Amino acid sequence: MKKIVIYNGSPRKDGNTTTILDMIARGAREHGAEVEYKILFKMKFMACQGCFNCRIHENCAINDELTATLNKLKDADAVVIGSPVYFMQMTGPVKNLYDRLFPLMGEDGTPRYSQKQIATVYTQEFDDPHMFDDYFNYVAGTFPSFGFVNERRLVCTGGNNPESAEKNQEIMQKAYELGRILAQ
Which GO terms describe its molecular function (predicted)? Predict the structure, then answer.
């Protein structure tokens, strides 16, 4: 059974990011995966302190609500991270999550643990799904150091309408299919 960890970086419980991530989770579960689903805005966690404890030890020195799920990433087969685009970037909790992934990287910049499939979900107001490709690619440049490979990316446009994803059958089908692929 594949283990998938999903991080929802949206503050909106019924928004487009949530709709897409829920469909990915459904597709994964219906195809036999064990899914851990975390809503970052409901968790109490600190940002990386830059203490470099994780360079000496394998774990972050911070012990908070994010710690346990980060430890589950070590044995996960896939990770999915979703965020709306606010002010041309991911949300703050998602940025803090990425910073807290630092312990997954060894001292030499290579992954400490096995490779994991990565999927990213972004929702945005702009109609052009490639509007922020440079930014998304910049973020994805860190993935190999964490052991994240074969990024699959979904971008939903029209994000100011909270029903954009739900009414977009193509993106909903892609999300379900992505869950199936990650489960196999």
Answer: oxidoreductase activity
In sequence order, what DSSP letters do the residues of 148-162 get, joined into one string? EEEEEEEEE--TTST
**Beta-bridge partner residues of 149:** 117
CA distance linking residue 155 with residue 133, whole number of Å: 10
Tokens of 91: 């949300």
Q: Are the C-beta atoms of 158 and 170 separated by less than 8 Å? A: no
Query: Order of strands across the sheet with 116-123?
Result: 34-39, 3-8, 78-84, 116-123, 148-156
Supply the CATH number for residue 142's domain: 3.40.50.360
Number of neighbouring beta carbons within 10 Å of residue 134: 8
| The residue to which tokens 């999300």 are assigned | 175
CA torsion sign, 8 to 14 to 17 to 20? positive
Residue pLDDT, tens place only, 152-178: 999 999 988 989 999 999 999 999 999
Name the residue with tokens 């710690």. Answer: 67
Strand pairing category for 3-8 and 34-39: parallel
Which residues constitute the domain of residue 80? 3-183
pLDDT digit string, tens, across residues 76-91: 999 999 999 999 999 9
3-state helix, strand and coil shares in percent for the chain, rounded to the nearest 5: 35, 20, 40
Model pTM? 0.96
